[in-house]
Amino acid sequence: MNKTKLILNVCCVLLIGGMCAAALCMVKAPESTAPATTPSAGQTGTSNAEKTVPGNVPAGAPNPAPPSKPVKLIFVHHSSGENWLSDENGGLGIALRDNNYFVSDTNYGWGPEAHVDSGWGPVGDNTDIGHWWLWFRGPNSAAITGALYAESGQNSGYSRPENDPGGKNKIIMFKSCFPNSALQGSPVDPVPQIGDNPLKAEGSGSEFHTVANAKGIYIDLLEYFKAHTDTLFVVVTAPPLSDPENAANARAFNTWLVNDWLKGYPYKNVMVFDFYNVLTSNGGNTMVNDAGQAAGNHHRWWNGQIQHVVGTRRDTSAYPQARDDDHPSSAGNKKATAEFVPLLNIAYHQWQG
User: ∠ CA(152), CA(169), CA(108), 5° rounding?
Assistant: First the structure.
């Protein structure tokens, strides 16, 4: 039977001779008499005519409305994430609060030891791509993830509801900082098996911080995610750098995360938000964003569709905080907030089914 298939995190726009030819997330087959659900990446829709999802949206349709009850979310980050959350900067904390999320976070100094061997220090100090293996797959990962599910405190400043709804965190959101965009190697290099991957537990300054090795880390993370489908995992790509040296590699890797990483993944509990792409176009300068504009680079809910578009061919940061500081500016963070929150709501409702 013909079905309509929507892939949450895949939507590209190709610029051809100055004209936009859109390949939208909604890939529609010939008309069918049976309704179809809206699956997540790697999942085929099935008939579901009777159910509805919150907000009176027909079952299967993307629903950007907030959850109907408070949902606990933990955000793993360092300084860029702290700025994004801040009421005075990106306003993400306020936006998540207003969309019925109770947000806690980790930062430097948080949590159990990163490794069972001595000398590593708290896992919160380690949030580079190679470090995610420690968090979810490493020898001390059971203690680390247990602490993540249980954490209800704040480790940076942002607004959230006064009352903790109780229970464990249902959403784990994690992001590496901008040095992780300095990926070496080539996008076409072969991806190693995790047992042979030298990026495991390594930082972004490592000689092994390559596109292929980073892909291998994320592929292995899916083994943990598929075993914990009662949790929604939100992967936020690392912000871009101003230095163009490895910018094409960063673009290739993040495009792979959005378009290819979840192909064949059978569950709805993983979401990718392309923070990198969002921060590669602005409204004219670093202090003016292009949120709500048709042109530019975006990952958002737009005209009733999920849109991931590269309308401006720029692979470096459009929002550096200063000439020598690649922390995203407030304008860039505010754009990311506006584009991210509706997509999170959609992912939440799809995960809940």
Answer: 55
